[in-house]
Amino acid sequence: MRPSRRNVLAAASAAVAVSADAVAAQAKAMEPTGTRPPATAQPPSRELRALLGEIDPDRIEATVRKLASFGTRHTLSSQDDPERGIGAARDWILAEMKSYAKASGGRMTAELQSYVQQPANRIPTATRITNVVATLRGSVTPDRIYVVSGHYDSRCSDPMDATSDAPGADDDASGVAVAMELARVMAGRRPAATIVFAAVAGEEQGLYGAAHMAQRFRSADADVQGMFTNDIVGSPTADDGTKAPYTIRLFAEGVPSSETPEQADTRRSVGGENDSATRQLARFVRDTADNSATGMNVRVIYRRDRYRRGGDHIPFLERAYPAARFTEPAEDYAHQHQDVRVENGKQYGDLPEFCDFAFIARVARVNAAALWSLAQAPGTPRGVKILTATLTNSTELTWTRGPEPDLADYEVVWRETTEPDWTHVIPVGDVTKRKVDLSKDNVFFGVRAVSRAGYRSPVAFPQPQT
Predict the structure, then answer these.
(1) How far is CA 121 from the centre of its chain?
(2) Pairing assessment for the beta strands 407-416 and 424-429 based on DSSP bridges
């Protein structure tokens, strides 16, 4: 059969309206061999399944419709009108986040994070950019941080039009709804690490809010070990009517945006183009969130973002933080970056009626599964080295023991250089070095940490040490 978008998407996701578990099983059966669950896959715990069960499509719908009701959320729109414009949306999001925080017993805080952006691209006059940030402080290793975001600003056809209606339901009330729903369901829980839930502004004008947030983290030398942005996650229906309701794309760059010339030399010498920290983060998402508990297939795309597009993960990548972007499987460009209008009987505009709220809830479950597993697991191993001083047909790996009090073991993983996912796992115990009777020249190795409860960290790719 000749490849087409329709049959490729059909192979990745069931298109019949039956139960999520049945659809997930059907989609799995349809997957090509190369996309079977990796050896490093982590079955969802009872705790995680309970959390995922609390994600509510009706609440997500209410959030999307409320954000669309502000008329426009353009970054240059009114900041003091109580009913229309970005300021009204900002204040509503903050109030909601504060209401969620009440369930946290003081562990979650919600605040505005503002700065004044001087005139720049798509910012004609000095403009206040404000992110809404809720932080759920970790109970064991609070200095380790994971971030999930959506952008609450919107636009219509003209990126400088701050007055026309720009409901921004899919782009990106849907992503904000994901971040807010996760804040709600996690507020009453105790993650080991800190989770930040953010609604950022200025994305449509040039990623300004996310850049400010990422720079604040970098200036504080914050240990952000993973960041996800959800941008355009509102619909599984493409412009030709193709549906992939049980698939979400995850864009993950290979060669790091922050790579130095010295790091590039090392990468070229060892062949690490597919083993950046962001690619390991993407593999972790598949390990923890591509299963019956979410009812979703995670389609990892080996790119930083789509052609001629960019999202709020990029400022984090540029500051050497692992970050990736969730986006719906195939977009309908009539319903993003468009004036609300009817032409030749066709409705244009980013309206709530073109969103699928059950789909957004499943995307939220994918995010929740990955974030909760990240926060409960030990951190990604540090100082992982592959010893190269002696030329042998075996491999010796070393690493630094992590600080987590519940850290119990480590695992060495490996795969053929042509494989996209880890294919073999070797338990090695609570040690900081291991010799493996395989040639480092022939395969790729990695190391991950294991908690007493069985949560596994993302894999760390070793650097050569002579």
Answers:
(1) 26
(2) antiparallel
Mean predicted confidence (pLDDT) in 394-399:
97
Backbone angles phi, psi at 92, to 5 degrees: -65, -45
Strand partners, 194: 145
Residue appearing with tokens 């597919």: 274
Considering the entire predicted model, what is its pTM?
Answer: 0.92
Backbone φ/ψ region at 347: left (φ over 0), alpha (ψ -120 to 50), beta: beta
Q: What are phi and psi of 464, to 5 degrees?
A: -70, 140
Between CA 134 and CA 100 the distance in angstroms is 9
Residues with Cβ within 8 Å of 184's Cβ and at least 6 positions away in sequence, in order, are 59, 100
| Structure tokens given for 283 | 């593999």
C-alpha closest to that of 114 among 130, 98, 126, 125: 130
Contact 196, 137 (CB under 8 A): no
CA-based angle 21:23:24, to the nearest 5? 65
Residue with tokens 């023991």: 401
Q: Is the preceding omega at residue 172 within 30 degrees of 0, hence cis?
A: yes
pLDDT tens profile 209-265: 999 999 999 999 999 999 999 999 999 999 999 999 999 999 999 999 999 999 999
